[in-house]
Fold each of these.
Amino acid sequence: MEAASTNRNIRKEIHKKLQDNIMRDALSRFAAQYPDARLHAYDNVESIEALRDDLRDMKRYTVDHIATIADTFESSVRERGAEFYRAADGKAVKEYLMKICEENNVHRIVKSKSMATEEIHLNQYLKEKGLHVRETDLGEWMLSVAGQRPSHMVMPAIHLNRQQCAKFFSQELKEDIPSDIPFMIQTARRVLRKEFLSADMGITGANFGIAENGAIGLVTNEGNARLVTTTPRIHVIIIGYEKLIPKIEDAAKILRLLPRNGTCQRMTSYMTMVDGPTPVMYKKDGKWIEEPRKVYVILLDNGRLKAANDPKLKEVYQCVRCASCLNVCPIWTLVGGHVYGHIYSGGIGAILTGLLNGLDDFSKFSDLCIGCRKCVTICPGKIHIPDLIDELRARNIKQNGLPLPEKAVFQNILTNRKIFHALLRIGSIGQKPVQSGKFIRHLPLFFSGMTKDRSLPAIAAEPFRDRTKKLFQKNPDKPVCKVAFFSGCNLDFVFPETGESVVKVLQDLNIEVSYPQEQSCCGKPVLGIGDRETAKKIAQQNIEAFEKSSADIILAACPTCAETLRKTYCELFADDTIWGPRAEAFSRKVHEFTSFVADAYKRAGRLAPTAGTHKITYHDSCHIKRGLGIYKEPRALLEAADGTQFVEMENSDKCCGMAGAFGVKYSEISLPILKEKIDHIKNTGAKTVAVACPACMMQLRGGLDQQAPDIKVKHIADILAEHLH
Amino acid sequence: MEKVCKDWVAEAFDSSLVNACHWKEFAQNAKTASAEILHVQNFTEATATVSEIIHSLKAKTVIAVGGDENPALQNLYKSISSPSINVCTDKFDIAENAPTADLGISTAEFGIGETGSVCVDTYSYEARLVGMLPPVHIVFLNASHIVENITTAFQVISRVFHKGHMGFITGPSRTADIERVLSLGVHGPSRFIIIAIENNPEGRLH
């Protein structure tokens, strides 16, 4: 088995995967087909949301009562005559299993796929002990022959093509196997059939374990789990605590979602439930005999109980291992599962690795979540995967500290607005962060040397904050309300003209605009790498700055800033009796620009669609669509703008690849994501692509500048300002 | 033959849950899952249908369960057996012949509209063999025994599932592990045939 090295060079691994055209073709085809295929499977249910809520609620209840539910499961299993064993970790599983093998004279074992046994590297151990062990899921079998790890929980061999598979077949069977898929399938059937019929023991995992009656459920398409639970005279079930459910009827809550999300099927070919010993027949001394099968249930902890008692991380119990979070992940669909380095890949994989292996392993690839939250919108258990990753990042920083360059920048510069802004003005900040690569969405200087396929803007000669005095001379005499503008670093130092557009649009609505000069970065960049202490200091400065203003509304034209101010500040100070209420009062005033203006336009009768000829399309930023839930308002504004014809692009809400530090540190991943976005923009025939997020604007401008210079990228504020009379 | 429930109709069914009105959706979803559906009025008519299948498969060995519980089915098994067609219904005979059998026949308790699945009671070892080892699997299903969805299926199941082995079958065995190309019959049968009995006055298959 190819094991994850402790001294990993993840960039090198990523580089290698990006050169693997076979894998990249397979993944991009799959990523393109998956979303519609999944929705099609749900066509005949009334509400996907209701099903997801049911599953989440049931799983939440379970984790909150895990000790008693595990006890009930244990007594149900024992009452029915199966053996039951609680294993603290992989070592305990292995020792217990060897005892069973010795007592029962077991030589040959068939397995049906079980992530829990992958997690504890069971196969390797059993082989070392001289046992004959065979994986029976076709993909898993091929990979075990090839000495590779699965790259996906549901489609383990998705990174391989038929020629590569044929090579592994030929290697294992020592005969020449052509790369004909039906032939390979029939060969696997023939070879593995012998294994099923000659095995003494079957080992399975479980998709669920029912406390009420002690049954476990297995979901497969090939039927291998059904055979593993049929032919051998011994059945060993290795099940993690997170798979337990209270009642028989609760199984339906998993089964209505798992196949649909996992494989876009309404149900897999086989759903098998095993509950206690059932009859098995085998030949003894040439004569068929029938006797009760021996069944052993091993309930595996390996970090799971600790997670169950963790107020934040217990959310992972809502995972049903459908792997759909991988299927929509912009990173996984580009680099595949192997770069995550452990058994569980993708966003949920990072979390599980953090829980099961520890924060050190987690920290090596925790960057590979860009926080786009696409996974959150489809996860059957409604797990907030990026938030849990953020939580683990924060714990990692708390435990292991920040790397030195970040520490210097974050703690000494970002917490001191005057120094920070002075450095921005002279454009001297950033050398170190760029080298270490852990810096910031909002700061443009770090992009030097990154001009291949993407050009990056320079710091504006005059920041927005220096232009406000002149701008505010045009404030209305009798305003309808007062808005304090939070610019964020990008609109302040990179796109001050867009900041000016914001002011003009607001003034046109008869609104008085102010700009508290003490405001600083929103803090998202430091939150992104888990430095919550620095983020708190920055938040306090911003809250104080805006408390001094008499404005009714605090408005941000950067959705990332808006979300941070509105949601994250309250979370940061949730346990703080002084700053908690101040953050609450502050956050209640925070609005995002497009939704605020759309609302005002609607009330003024200015939101009626117009018929124009200038084609314009719109890119949803991750934070505005999935963070703030705003996506209708920007479109309404564009449709109402004079002379425009609004057109949708494909995958309008897929991340543009910027994602703060990510776009810089992993430009090799960011650029292909950007290229796909630009292709979708070009396909619309639009002359303008509108955004509501300055960071997306930076990324898209950079890409279009190089790849389609005739298409303009504009913030909606700029488009609205152009249309003012 | 041992079962999770000896009499699903009496002990598990409830007319508000199990109803022929879900047939159309069941059939549609089952076909989408590559199951074949044949309609017959009764077991007499089913005999001819099964004989045709045996003929087209050139089947020599058939393994079949459910006859002990249902005289009509027992008659069917007797009718299809001939000097050239060995129909095994004894459990040890089934075990002996399963690896080389051409066809397996069993019964399903009910169908599920939402998914096109059939619920099978496979407590006994031989019931599992007939559904998994031969390349073709036929199940008999009472056409009026259909539940609306997975939730209602588990309401039915929870009344009787105290111990044993049971589950759903939805079409034939399949894999897409190589290049995501769908292939049927990897470990289990490549053909899954549902014979729906339309007119079954006693309401039971067994």
Amino acid sequence: MSPAIRIQGVDKRFGSVHAVRSMDLEVNEGEFFALLGPNGAGKTTLINLLAGLSRPDAGHLFVQEFDVVRQYREARRRLGVVPQELVFDPFFTVRETLEIQSGYFGLPRNDDWIDELLMHLQLSDKAGTNMRALSGGMKRRVLVAQALVHRPPVIVLDEPTAGVDVELRQSLWKFIQKLNREGHTILLTTHYLEEVEALCERVAILKQGRLMALDTLKNLMSAHRAHRFEDVFIALMHNAGEQDVVA
Amino acid sequence: MTGFQTLLYKEVLRFWKVSLQTLLAPLVSTLLYLLVFSHVMAGHTDIYPSITYAAFLVPGLVMMSMLQNAFANSSSSLVQSRVTGNLVFLLLTPLTPAEIFLGYVLASMLRGLLVGSVVCLTALSFFSLPFREPLWVAGFALLATFMSGALGVLAGLWAEKFDQMAAWQNFVILPLTFLSGAFYSLHSLPPVWAVVSRFNPFFYMTDGFRYGFLGHSDVPPLESLTIVAVTCLALSWGTMALLRCGWRLRT
């Protein structure tokens, strides 16, 4: 089976900052995969490259075998991205926001799925509310709904639970796990390592744009003789020079 | 609806939701110009034979309001989306650069034409105005709002902050529209300024548009139409090229 995401020899610089260095990475279909690293490791840059918000200086990125630069229309139809920043359009209500986002993908009559998203994300009673009037947590839920409104098979969540209360966090993961069980591939970035342990099978750990580790949680913990994944992460972060890619 | 139609609908809905600011306010300010200038200039020498100054002024002010509002629509929408960060939701979609360009430009045209039509109809209730060549009126109205909307897209791509957009409004659009011959004929200017005015594409839009109403113009309307059409094509080509390469949108 071809991978859901394929990153081949990708390099990206912003002036003197080498944000992503010769990155090779594959995420399998149906996987719940975590992309980890400290701030500035290159996680969001890699997601932006995948989403077409940035262009690589070298290499290629594919979503379900569609090149994100040359075949961007097909690639973007298959990709849903929840951005890290809490952004919204203050002119529209929650339902209008979702209808518009759905329409961009050529899906004008998508009410059933929009209603389902609103229900799962506990937004049904806020459908007619203007985005400005929502709390931060609710805006975050709308961001998730926007990313999912065109039913993308590959979903990227860039720190979706940052600053989110426990209740929403639990309901969000329950919904994302349901989507994963239904066959959606999930790529997650987070600083909450307990979420990674609970949800993900495989992880990639980045530092300063380099891939430091790529393996299952089990293999990484066993290779580092660690009982907690957090210990593996800390060990890798303090081991700047050594490449620890197990594959 | 396709993705393009959705963007167009969203852009129209956006200005419709704040119609007090986007449709009514320009009507009031344009009518104030009209009332003040037509009274101040009443009794002065007519610019064209048997055409009152008010009749001369109305097409110029209608064109000015169309240009300013078409520009304001695309430019403010883009800069607001960029500053608030929600532009990302458009950039993540499969829309092509041409669809994005046309979505913004057509919504701008609609706002410009709506404001222009309402100003024109309201002015007609105060002043009598001939309507000699309706096709020229329609042609120049469409091309002018298209060009101004496209210029708004260009400004929206360039400006990353509201003050940069204000610079476009104050140092580009306002001088070009005020010096487009809305208030005067080219023949009433000193020779140097008459030559300078000929480098202002907004002058040709105003002059050609006025020809449609009065049957008089400073330059032949076909010459104006050609210059405006070529400027529209060049601006569209340049803006589309910038959208295609992701200039200031995709890092």
Amino acid sequence: MSSAQPVIKSKQTVKEVNGISTQVVCTEFSNYIFVVLTQYGKMGTLISVTPDSRSNDISTPSFSTKVLLGKDEPLTHVCAKNLATFVSQEAGNRPVLLGLALKDSSIDSIKQMKEIVKSCQVW
Amino acid sequence: MSETQNGEVFEAIKVHNFSEKILEQSIHFHVMKLSGGFFLWVGSSPDSMPLSTLVMGDPSNTAANSLAQRLAKKTKKQVYVSYSLPMTDNNFSLLVEKRIKKELELLPEHF
């Protein structure tokens, strides 16, 4: 049975990013925005992006990234911050859970992916 | 939708929602089918419950309170419950409640 209005709201899309098929699924939970961004069709590395509660300067809020599952390397944190910070801010500082499985993590690709995530706005 | 990329079969992620009423509660399920795996969320929508208050009796016995809440929700009426049964297992009080609900449906004019 599929009810007309599911309690969990999600949006998804597929786009090519520099020739690589890239899928995005954004799901809204009450305490988290869940973003899956994958070029493998798999969940990949799970990263939690949370706004810091004690931000001494309102103009520059800071975010912490934590790899919950998968390879914990600096680039993962850089990608996660670039891709998920705006989501958290737009969603009223809700934390973001990010599933990342990228074949290409160049700056240009990340910029394009950010736009794809934007197009799947559920928050 | 599936396409082949670098020789491997590439299937689009699929999202599936379903719900079921389990023990008077609406339980919702959300599945995200990934390549070679899936993500599952199970939860309940916060069913808004009517307000209830204990007028007299043992505050540790919540049976009357919860029964009153559920009956108020079902009938959309103000409900007073005096519950004078010994504290037994959950299953027993569930059967008692079932019988009341049966009567509600059979003879709604008496309530």
Amino acid sequence: MKKASVQVSAALLLGFALIGGACGGRDDSSSGDSTTTTAGDSTETAFIDPAADCTDYKGTQGVTGDTIKIGTVRPESGSYAIYDNVTKGLEAYFKSANAAGGLPAADGKKYQVELIKKNDEYDPAKTPALVKQLVEQDGVFALVGNIGTETNKSVRDYLNENCVPNIALATGSTQWGDANAYPWYISGLPSYATEANAWVSYLEEVNPTAKIALLYQDDDFGQSYKAAIEKAIEGTKITLVAEEGFNPLAGSTTEASVTKLSQSGADTFIVGVGGTACPLTLSFVPATWTPMTMISVTCGSKTALSLAGGKDQGVYMAQPTLDPADPADQSNPKVVEFATQGAAAGLDESAIQGGIASVGWGFGSMFAVGLKNATTVDRAAVMNALYSLKDSTFGLIRDEVTVNTDGAKDPWAIEGFRIVQRENGAWVEKAPVTNEEGKSNSFAGK
Amino acid sequence: MSGAVSAEQSAQRGPREWALKVGPWILLFVILAVLPFQFPSFRVEQFCFWMTLAIAACGLNLLTGYNGQISVGHGALFGIGAYTTGILITEFGVPLFGATVAAAVVCFFVGILVGLPALRIKGLYLALVTLAVATLFPLLLEQFSAITGGSGGLQITSPQMYRGEMRERPIRLESPIAGLANDQWKYFLFLAITVVIFVLSRNLIKSRVGRSLVAVRDNEIAAESSGIPVSKVKILTFGLSAAIAGIGGSLFALDQGQLYPSSFTIVLSIYILVAVVVGGASSIIGPAIGAVFYGLFSDVIIQQMPDRIQPARAVILGVLLILLMLLAPGGVVGGVRSLQANFASRKGGSPGSDPDLIM
């Protein structure tokens, strides 16, 4: 009895081992044709020197022949599944580029992109295993367009230690400004602090004694707004009269918080929450309260605002990009290109107009710029290219917004906003673009 | 009960029988020893996670399998172990495994607190109390975000040199052996701890104390009249079970280096219970088998499926569980036992001659 049962259990374990064995081995070819290379960028001023910063540097992992493997992690299910549209846009960009022969690189070749997607449901507890799988098993060259602040934070040390690029983070947390410590990360969005600063600058202009009621998401994303607003109103007559935190994972709505804020006597309402909670918040604003409402840029898409039950009329936003749903922007060549090529790559009309897929399209385009500007097809070279952009642009960034980076001195690509107001489903410019080149980190509060 | 008898029996068996008995264990240990060299580091870290789950399930098994008290709250105890470890290391600079010991002690007392109602209520009602603990725990983590980091997570860090300056960096278990990567070192360290805990549990169950656990489970009144202090046994078993779950949680914290409330929801409690039931309650090795099954399911098999199917993992797991319970109500170990019994009776031997099989 006993011995036989032991045998069976051993056989079972052996079975598991075999099943597991099918999933790849430590020293097998899972990491593609990775080779250890020396510094990707030979110029002395290169921001990243892998020879100095990386142990076991695999600069060309994921590059095989004329194919580059890229990974991305996003919420395909769960309450943040709306952001899956970002990934649809990213995928469309690569599809479109592949159909056109591939992404051009400095070596004269054109690279086909193979995109591997993982679903972490916006849960930072799930992200690390998926990202490690992408890097160690799927052997990707880089991650592009990963969604979420906490999710990206949960793998920041891992990716930086292993010298794996994480390009165009779909988050504007002020943490990504620490390029000195984490040079393998570069955000694809403007810093939330720069955005908050743009709101306050505009308020100073139009309502210098504004009384702000702030609803913020009680995580790094919302706290970035809160801290930056507190810093920006220092020394002004603007006051923060009420604030409410909102926990997106608690399963409740913002209704109670909005009711509370509406009784605070504030004349300005800043909505620092994302996901579908943001437009729903607008729909909760009682008819008796008519503040000047500022919404997060993550909420400014047609898709999101269509959930506001008509209460999006009159809201303000700081806008860095073109809006494919805005008639005023639709003739812009960048929008035309996105609309025609995106459609050819399988995006439907609602995705194109929705304003979320276009963000992902921009992330793909940001990677393409990095690859094109890089001296060689190498991880460090691509990062160095992205950290030394000169009068560049990508995706649907507004033409007036300047795109420059300079390593840790200026780690943010997008730092310009214009202030717009929503009128009948379109945006009306209230203040032109102000570019805050190199200043984004200084806006971050504590 | 039959432990001494079977030892006598095995002493009488020939060397061939002995080899058959010991051989599979040697094979098992060879496999376990080779495993971390065959897989990329993220997979080895998952193995470490499975071990932490196995430890927690081993703790729950003492309580549910041997003592007959149902707990659906062991995910919370696991979480308390993890957060205690994280906070002690990050805030107070406690050495890594010192924090594990502290976590076990904290969980022991929390377990006793949770177990107090068990003196008055039983079965489903006790399950409901523990369910409340499991449901409340992640909410408490959010509520006390100043200490726990809330939904933003708790980064377990210690001051380390990085890029020329002292920074708070994620903790790591540095391998002291050249040629052994950090994750491999962690694997063997965790394996050793897991084996020790399982062996100690086995010894406990085979001892007088273990027999009193089982006696309380089988018939409280009979146990009481044979002189077993029933209340004391029930309470201490709850505490011990919680402490073991806490050790599992503590190792989980050391494995991950960061903690999020979403890891410690009611779902985790259910998975720990699933590990016990799948493996086979009231067998020592059962929870480990169950934990490996669960790990294989959620980290390997589901991950290979298309993205669209993945959100349905709970449904798939549910269906598999129903099937398993229909086919083998005693879990994997129970199924193996009944197969053996069938086999033995067909051969004409006496079936189930070793009913208290530890395996």
